[in-house]
Amino acid sequence: MDSQLNFENSRNYYEIQKESLSNQIFAQNHCFTAIIEI
User: Which domain of life does this protein belong to (predicted)?
Assistant: First the structure.
C-alpha cells in the first residue's frame, strides 16, 4: 500500500517536472523568437 502510494507520488512529481520543463523551454523559445524579431 505504502509503496504503491509512493509510486503514484513519484509519477505525479515526474509529470509535473516534465510539464514545467517543457514550459521553461517554450518560454525560452518565445523569448528567443522575440529577440530575433526586434
Answer: Bacteria
